[in-house]
Write a structure and sequence with these properties.
2 strands; two-stranded antiparallel sheet; single chain; alpha+beta; 15% strand
């Protein structure tokens, strides 16, 4: 009985690993291109669409912070940072 359980567990793990490997092989590198009027074009890249979106959102936030610092000579405050997070979390990839 114990051997049957061990075999079933190993078989299940093997199926899970094979399934994950097949899914990883199907994924293609993705890009997330966002064109904005105020900070220019941002291109996020990653192994899949979700990671590319996260990369684009991070670049959007970083660019907005850099422009704020260049314009005003100081880091943005908490309220402005939260506004940037809201804006960049809602970018639309083309």
């Amino acid at each position: 009985m114990r051997l049957t359980w061990i075999f079933a567990i190993l078989f299940g793990l093997t199926l899970a690993l094979v399934s994950n490997a097949a899914q990883a092989a199907d994924k293609k590198p993705a890009t997330c291109k966002v064109e904005t009027a105020d900070i220019g074009t941002i291109v996020g890249r990653g192994p899949d669409r979700e990671v590319a979106f996260e990369d684009a959102a991070t670049k959007c936030f970083d660019r907005r912070r850099q422009l704020y610092k260049a314009r005003y000579g100081r880091e943005s405050d908490m309220e402005t940072g939260e506004l940037y997070i809201d804006i960049c979390a809602n970018v639309k990839c083309s």
